[in-house]
Amino acid sequence: MFAGVVSLIIFMLSASSAFAGHVQTELLTSVSSIELGKPFWLGVRLTIDPGWHIYWENAGDAGLPTRVKFTLPEGFSAGPVLYPTPSRFLAPGNITLFGYENSVMLMAKITPPANLSADFQGEFKAAVHWLVCSDVCILGNSNMSLPLGASGRVSPVNQDVFDGWLAQVPQSAAGNPEVVRVDMSGSGKESITVVWSHPAPQSVDFFPEATDDYNITNIQVSSSQDTTLITFTPQLLAGRHPGATTLNAVLGYNDKEGSRRGVILSVALPGL
Amino acid sequence: MRKTHVLASLLAVIAIALAARGFADESESGIAIGSRAPDFALQDQDGKTVSLHDFAGKVVVLEWTNPNCPFVQRHYREKTMQTLNDQFKDKGVAWLAINSSFFATNDQDKQWATGQSISYPVLNDSSGSTGHAYNATNTPDMFVIGVDGKLAYEGAIDNDPTDEKTGDKINYVHQALDEILAGKSVAVPQTKPYGCNVKYKD
User: Fold this and answer.
1) Which of A101, A133, B85, B155 is placed for a possible disulfide with B191 were both Cys, Cβ 3.0 to 4.6 Å?
2) DSSP H stretches of helix in chain A
3) Burial class of residue A234 in the structure, from the number of CB atoms within 10 Å of its CB (0-12 exposed, 13-18 middle, 19+ buried)
4) A171-269 has which CATH code?
5) Which stretch of DSSP H or E encloses residue B113?
6) Which residues of A touch B192 (CB under 8 A)?
7) What pLDDT, in 10s, does the model give residues A66-118?
8) Angstrom distances, CA of residue B143 to CA of B32, B85, B98
9) End-to-end distance of chain B based on CA atoms, in angstroms?
10) Which ipTM was obtained for this model?
11) Interior CA angle at A47 toward A207 and A264, to 5°?
């Protein structure tokens, strides 16, 4: 009973929530109190009604990326907003969309100022904008605020939530023991061969980041034994003449435990 | 053992490559800029059949639309489409809105057109066949066809998907129409459309 009340109080202190049409949002922190010189995490968790989806930082053929903007007390700085590995949806008409169903958390590492005073107390704010779609699309947004200070007892909060979502943020192939080798080749039609340390996972998908100059078309992903082959055609938009470009992409898959994972791939495109 | 493993992987890659070839040449990006715009015959909000070839010799703007889409609603609230049509309708430019939503009806299109004071046809493509012929993916998704019947621009209405720009906003359709009417080539003939996905039947 006592433990229940304490965890409820901690939850109330470490989360601020809002609901707006098919999406519920909460602002979460990874610490109960800020520790001098120690970065921590802020995350916006979006809970999405069944049958609806929101979008990754590249929405795909249509849609709108979900965006988070953190507003922090003076002296604090936020790292880039991290997007977990998305899923691919195919809408009627062969329209490919990249995004999230059910829930997702967008996170940023927050660094306190070096001269943080011991009695610091401040408001941490997040503004989130999204487009949520099923048979219709609805624009939504939410503004949240969370009080956090430096004088309380320091203990991690929401640890499983942050650990779980951070593990879904795409990582480089070099740091992933599941990936043995990545080979790239091609001019015109690009191919990427990924050799795994085990039989190739199920449901491997390729998610290119947004580019102004190219449509990434004809994405094909197929696996056999321990090897996955990805091919695609980078098609220049009419009238564009870019120089050599690096196309960043995410290889998404589900690991043996069924958890979503992502590998960052960088593909060199020759340009014109 | 290691050698067999490598050989098996290699064979697997070749097998996958051969299997993937069959799909590889299917283009996802619709008709290319500079190629002939496909003809169509669709009913407008009053049930009258409207064809692209009715406008031979004119510049034609096609606007993929969906009254339920917030991006379309925003541009109608801001009168982006109506204003642009008003500016160019007496200069040899025809404007056609096309609704390829599976739920589109002439009645809904008429209600929408009346409510928004739309003076141009809103065409019912609920089968999606014209949308597929153009590979329209978003609402709005804009196509500008030159007097020669060839596609001169395809993509976004402007460079402001999140409705945040003020001074640096570029309306790509306005720009393309100005260039076409001045006899110039279109400097930005293709952009990435933004909006809701077209709610196709299949």
Assistant:
1) B155
2) 2-14, 159-166
3) buried
4) 2.60.40
5) helix B106-115
6) 210, 212, 215, 237
7) 999 999 999 999 999 999 999 999 999 999 999 999 999 999 999 999 999 99
8) 11, 14, 11
9) 49
10) 0.88
11) 20
Instruction: Quote the tokens at residue B189.
Output: 């003939």
Tell me whether residues A92 and B9 touch, CB distance under 8 A: no
Identify residue B88 by its one-letter amino acid code.
F
Distance, CA of A218 to CA of B138 (rounded, Å): 19
Give the whole-angstrom CA distance, residue A126 versus residue A124: 7
Is A92 close to B102, i.e. CB distance below 8 A? Answer: yes
Rounded (5°) CA angle A28-A34-A38 = 105
Closest by CA to A108, choosing from A172, A19, A27, A211, is A27
* CA–CA distances in Å: residue A119 to residues A239, A254, B36, B189: 58, 44, 70, 58
Question: Is A201 in contact with A244 (CB distance < 8 Å)?
Answer: no
Report the 10 Å Cβ neighbour count for B145. Answer: 23
User: What's the pLDDT score for residue A19?
Assistant: 61
Q: Which of A134, A144, A70 is nearest to A108 (CA)?
A: A70
Say which residues have a Cβ less than 8 Å from residue B117's Cβ, sequence separation at least 6: B82
Q: Return mean pLDDT, chain A.
A: 92
Query: Please, are residues A207 and A58 in contact by the beta-carbon 8 Å criterion?
Result: yes
Q: Largest Cα–Cα distance of chain A, in whole Å?
A: 68
Any idea where the domains of chain A sit in the sequence? 2-166, 171-269
Coil, helix or strand for A219? strand
Find the closest chain B residue to A194 by CA distance: B13
Q: Out of 1.10.3720.10, 2.60.40.1250, 3.30.565.10, 3.60.150.10, which CATH number does the structure's domain A2-166 have?
A: 2.60.40.1250
> Which residue among B68, B155, B190 places its CB closest to the CB of A136?
B68
